[in-house]
Amino acid sequence: MRTKIGTKRGMIGRIIRTVFQYYPAMMSIVLACIVLNAVVTSIPAVFMQNIIAVVEQNWESGDWGSAGPVILRMVLLLAVLYIISLAASFAYNRMMAVVTQGSLKKLREQMFNRMQNFPVKFFDTNNHGDIMSYYTNDIDTLRQLISQSLPQMLSSMIIVVSIFCIMLYYSLWLALVVVFGVCMMVLITKRVGGASARFFVRQQIELGKVEGFVEEMMNGLKVVKTFCHEEESKNDFDRLNGQLFRVAEKANQFANTLGPILNNIGNLLYVIVAIVGGLLLLCGAPNVSVSGLPFAISIVVPFLNMTKQFSGNVNQVSQQVNAVVMAMAGAERIFNMLDEEPEEDEGYVTLVNAREVNGQLTECKERTGIWAWRHPHHDGTVTYTRLTGSVQFNDVDFEYEKGKPVLHNITLYAKPGQKIAFVGATGAGKTTITNLINRFYDIADGKIRYDEININKIRKADLRRSLGIVLQDTNLFTGTVMDNIRYGKLDATDEECIEAARLAGADDFITRLPQGYETPISGNGENLSQGQRQLLAIARAAVADPPVMIMDEATSSIDTRTESIVQKGMDALMRGRTVFVIAHRLSTVRNSDVIMVLEHGRIIERGSHEQLIAEKGKYYQLYTGAFELE
Q: What is the residue-wise DSSP string for 219-256?
């Protein structure tokens, strides 16, 4: 099992690989500029040592004429290096702005594109506000990491390594003193920074909970006000917000304490190096170094500057720990989402336009009004089956969670053009059956056949293209009324959309809107009534003109008068199609060819309205007990 440290390193590595994958050439230039800038920043001590050595040498000889040109050359060379370093710093900072925002843009696109392939289960089991947090808070933590923390840490670490090598080159004794101080800084960073890191990780989790709660309350604002639940909502928010405050407070307390502690250790280390260097000079101690230079003031003075620079850069690295930890928490959530298994689709049977010639179906590109299933076989042959809309369940079992079955031994057959109704109490499994036809979920056992083809062999996109569905919960999108109707068939003409609206009974209220079919819709159609939104959803299904329709309580939010208008349009829409109806109102059930009564995931009765009434079973009790089936 990987350790936490190993996990963090792996996460940082994955972020770096991702950024390099997006901008390989630019990141290579950035890396070269950072290394150049860091190396140049590390070498002033070498120039200082050489200049002081020249001064010491000429102090003894008194020959200042030859010292001037040497010192001037060194100063000019250092100035040139600083100009190069400045250019490199300017270049990589400019490029990092492009790399950072570009990487976040590409990552958001990758996340959203990936999310389109997730199974419905992912959205059913994850809070929508928490999913939104991936695109806001979690992405924002990566912004600071990519633009600031990683370049700063890389630059600081190169400077630290470079300066330490220079220290060893000049004096082992003073380098050991610095190493002792650095060990103290690392130990404190591990303890204080580690505590800060733990709270920053929790802060990201609590922030996701707060955003999820706010999103939930905004969606349910009318319900909150209807039931006077404002005070309870405030209390719940205060509780979640309080948890976020306490975790964030702890995280920032540790983070704000770390900087001053490390700064003071750096100052103390500067004093200790000065004292040790002075004592070694007074004692005339021999110098142990790679350079072989004797211990002198030309080594002690540059060493003091290197000590300050060394401790300062160690402090810089430690100051980035909090940003890195927050980014790790955000990156872990983002990459976990990207690593989610996409919706499996092993189907190879596709839906194509077809033309019938001499009783034989042939594939064609233009729309003919005839659809066929293209079925390739192992021997290389291809057969075509006309799309008629027959659906068959054979001994189907299903469970959302393992060990908790929802449907048991479901067997049914819907012939082309039949209207099948499902009735029963909430949780009986009505909607689940229609979800299985769409393959939003896959069955645990049994077979589902569509036009005598196992639906596991049909590509999901083609399967769903052949189905029309009107859900109980209507979703409208930002755009015009016409755009929302056309959502069912993107290449539909305006005339086709208007005809679909007339068929659904929506044309009357649409033409009375301020801009008719060009009236803008936003916020899931908040400017429309629930019934009007549902009429648009029915029109959207009508324009798709599918052979199979699923009506999941499609008229549940429509008043009785409107329903009588819509019912005529729905009857016309259903004519010649296989229709599955889930409804509580008897007006949408009585004229069904077959009514199936479900109870606890089993079909306990089936037959026409008259047959079931005559049997005086469960359906009879529901029918005679109340107008609504529940």
A: HTHHHHHHTT-HHHHHHHHHHHHHHHHHHHHHHHHHHH
